[in-house]
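QA checklist item 7 of 12: single-chain prediction sanity check.
[x] sequence parsed
[x] length recorded as 149
[x] structure emitted
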Amino acid sequence: MTRHATSYFDNEGTEDAYAVHRALQETMQALVGIIRVESELLEAKERLAELAERASKCAVEGNLQFNPGWHLALDLESMLAVSNCTTLSAIERRESRGGHTRDDYPGFRPEFENVNMITRLVDGEYVVAQEPKPQMPDELARLFEEGAH
């Protein structure tokens, strides 16, 4: 773990973590924003793969003490993971529900009502699976019922 974390100091790559971070922000804002469509989500998926490649080539200078560039290079791994999970789950969920809005699928679809999209990293690839939602605990269900009346 330590070896991986400090590898950015030895990396002979030419990518700047700040530039990759900015490109990631722009990609997610433009293509995986509030209103989503499949063509943009698929484009985001491609860009995320390119950004992961760029992130692997990030190099940092300086030392281990207070080094924001190094911290950002480390954080990019997690940011890319979350971005991939969000994008791939949004591609799979072909409906609009709650905070997830698909312009190309404007309504609810009953087959998605009782499933969660679960994204896992399997052999270096992100895989999305629909898994049944766990049953709501009785005490929580009662609170929802009480709030509805």
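[x] summary fact logged: The CA atoms of residues 15 and 53 lie 10 Å apart.
[ ] second reviewer sign-off
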